[in-house]
Amino acid sequence: MPADEEFELKGLSQTTFPAHVSSGLLAPSPTPGLVATVANGNNLEIRRDQGELVSSNTERGRAVQALCWKADGQFLAAGWDDGTVRLLSVENTKVVHRLNVAQRHADNAEPAQIVHIAWVRNLARERRRGRGRGPKAHITSEMKALGSEIGGSLDAKNDGHIVDLPHALTFFEIDASLPKISPLPVSGGTGDDMFAFSTATALESMFPPLKLKDSRVVDVMVVGTKDGHVHLSIYDSFFIGSFYVPIAVRLGGVEPRVNVDGTHEVVLHASHPKVSTHCLIMGPTDDGVGATTLYVVLMDLRFISDSPFDLSLLASKTTMLQKLLRYLKQAQIHILNEWQATRELPSRFLNFIQQDLQKMDCRPNNIVQALYHTVLTGHVHAPVKDWLVESIGDRGHKRWEKAVIPSLESLCNLIHENTLPALERITLILSRLSGIARFHEQDDHIGFTSTDITRLVNIVAALHFVCNKILLLVIEELDLFRVFSSWLRITIDRVSTSNVSDEIMEKEALLDTSKVLQYIEGYLVSSPLALYFEKLPKEIWEEDRASIQDWSKVLDQVDQELKQEEAGKPFKKALPQLGFLVDLLTERTGGVLKNIAEAERRSVRFGAAAKFELQHGGGNRETFKLFDGRMRQNPRLVIVPFGAGTPSACLEKVFPGNLAEFVPRQMKVQEANDYHGQVPHRVCLLGKDEVSYKVFTLIPEREELVEHAASSSHGEMT
């Protein structure tokens, strides 16, 4: 089209933000109607295009440095000055993950500033099945022959369905047949994940099913820091590695190069979904004023284009495994808190009477003997009577019940509805990883082996074993405590009055005294659950961990230690503990995932830099109002010769309204997508006053002008 041809934009919405947008931190969502802004440096806000506040997030004493949306608009990545990128879920506006990306050059040094975040989609290599020569081609030809015999036809169009059958089976999910993972309680968690799994909506966003249509999609996050590094991760949180971007300029030959020192940072990123090579534009680390040189460095992610296996399957499953381990850790923390709640108040009550009984010259000198005596004979010793009437009484008994029964019920639910379903899903994922490892057993570049996965499966089996042991003990303790509590209530009423009513005597006669005695003897002072939850010195944990000789026999070792404990013999106290096994699984899984990431990291390549001299000729930088870097959808390498003073083509855009009233300062262009229905191309403008915001779209008859434009990269210069 002629360079001077005009086309119009149609206004979609406009609003005025209540506060100035800080440092140009504006990020329109790929889905329509949402925009993320930063006000006052640290107040991250998600608003609708009309200005309505959806959510806000503030970190005291910290400032936001970069923003970027995921391609489907489900998560927002915010880079903060503490060197972390926080991923916020749009569904529940909670931080679902934290990525530590910036390196500290000294213990007390501030982390490197995050200067750029790009979150783009790549398509993994499409593996061809059943074509060419060999057994697969033979199978395809046989099926075509079979179709001809039965009167059917397997032409090229229908052939794709047969060829893709193994692919469909590979991504077949059976998670839907498992019990759903339940949300964790809002209170009681600790750390960054205390609210990440607290609602059903949060769980749906954290554990989305992998759809067959997205089986080739690899979400890549590139985070640039001021020290010249890029942090690379895929599938939201699977860390590949941090890389220093080399800037080596060829001098005309093949070998001679000039290495530029580390004074440049990522200022812009561009990529294409079908090309594994990403483009990094490196600029000076200062504010850019007076800068005359930019470098273009190509970063090739060969693990996307040359992966020998289904990268999407591996990446999605390993990321899901990481999230399940975080969920499992939070569930374990909740379980520990509930168990501690069952012991805290009763221990205080029992300490009072224990001190009084120990002062007596004759037996009984502990509460277990005293209550055992009362159950068998009906006689209540004087200190015990005073304790029952004065220290406990009606109010104390109700507090005791409310402290124990709800906590034991919650503990049971946490095991049955949270921990065991999570372990089942972890087992499924490990089974998938084991299949990948066995299929590629001869390949040394996948990063893990079937033996590594077998060791993890054994630790999961040990967790299953311990959780079932705990569940049985909790059910038994809950049943026994209810009977003991009824007996305690009757005993308090009986010793509180001189005349025992027939109703009290009838209730006492109906009690199962064997269960009362069993609780007093086995659970009152010290619960058998302490074997799995009591706090141990760190040294014991380290010693018991070091004693594990064969990581594929952790289950056998745990079983052996429990048998030693039942026999009254010395045993390793840390091995049966739930927290120890969860940490052990997390640690060992982290080692396997690190090896996978290292294998992918080795396939990242950086090319020689291309140098661009910006010769402004002393012109005023204010003449550059808007700039949006884009890459064509057509996956071809186009080389355009450029020299200083070369005239450039200009596509003029006419914005509705009076430019005197609205002067754009920053522009973001969003490509049309169909993630949540058909969304047209949008042009989002922030006014010079940093509060005016307008969104435009192409009129329908002109949309074909940008059908080949990509939104893989967005940037602006002002």
From TrEMBL:
Statement: the UniProt record of this protein carries the keyword Cell cycle: yes
Origin: domain of life: Eukaryota
Annotated coiled-coil segments of the chain: none
Pfam families found in the cross-reference section: ANAPC4 (PF12896), ANAPC4_WD40 (PF12894)
Domain Anaphase-promoting complex subunit 4-like WD40: 29-120
One of the protein's GO biological processes: anaphase-promoting complex-dependent catabolic process
Domain Anaphase-promoting complex subunit 4 long: 296-497
Signal peptide coordinates: none
Presence of keyword Cell cycle: yes
This protein's UniProt keywords: Cell cycle, Cell division, Mitosis, Ubl conjugation pathway
UniProt cross-references to InterPro entries, sorted A to Z: APC4, Apc4-like_WD40_dom, APC4_long_dom, Quino_amine_DH_bsu, WD40/YVTN_repeat-like_dom_sf
Gene Ontology cellular component terms for the protein in this record: anaphase-promoting complex; nuclear periphery
PANTHER family hit by this protein: ANAPHASE PROMOTING COMPLEX SUBUNIT 4 APC4, ANAPHASE-PROMOTING COMPLEX SUBUNIT 4
Protein name, per record: Anaphase-promoting complex subunit 4
